[in-house]
Amino acid sequence: MDTREKGPIGFTTTPADPHEEAQEADVLVTGRVSRALAEEQGWKRREGALVRELVMRDFEEAMRLLERVAAGAVDYRRRPDMCISEFNHVRLLISNPHHAGLTAAELRLAAKVSLVLEAFGVEDATRRG
Questions:
Q1: d(CA 113, CA 42)
Q2: CATH superfamily of 45-125
Q3: Do the Cβ atoms of 61 and 88 come closer than 8 Å?
Q4: How many CB atoms within 10 Å of residue 43?
């Protein structure tokens, strides 16, 4: 029985075996990334990165969200870039730290972020477009 946790964008949040861990450094083809993102509304592919933009009620709610993402969305010591602008707009960005394109690791981190966002209850706050 497969006990791995399935992330919202169709990627498991932990590798199944050591061989899979080595493969996740491989850059994914555009089609595979597009299929994974099609399952999750909110994440967009922009200039080689995954981006999610949210509008929160106020600055305090935006800060609470970022604190939860920082604590809960960790993957091999990596976290998404996070920004608050216009006092309540949150931008989350996940990119390959080696500038090598998107890999399974970036998709897995996006899945972890999505789980934190769902637990926080921000699905309705996603800015479309």
A1: 11
A2: Transcriptional coactivator/pterin dehydratase (3.30.1360.20)
A3: yes
A4: 25
pTM over 0.85: no
CA distance 115 to 119: 6
Q: How many other C-beta atoms can be found within 10 angstroms of the C-beta atom of residue 115? A: 17
Q: Where are the domains of the chain?
A: 45-125
- The one-digit pLDDT tens for each residue of the chain (129 residues) are 444 455 555 555 454 444 444 455 565 556 665 666 656 668 888 888 999 999 999 999 999 999 999 998 887 777 899 999 999 999 999 998 877 788 888 888 898 999 999 999 985 444 433
Name the phi and psi angles at 31, rounded to 5: -60, -40
The structure tokens listed for 119 are 């637990």
Owner of token pair 């299929």: 35
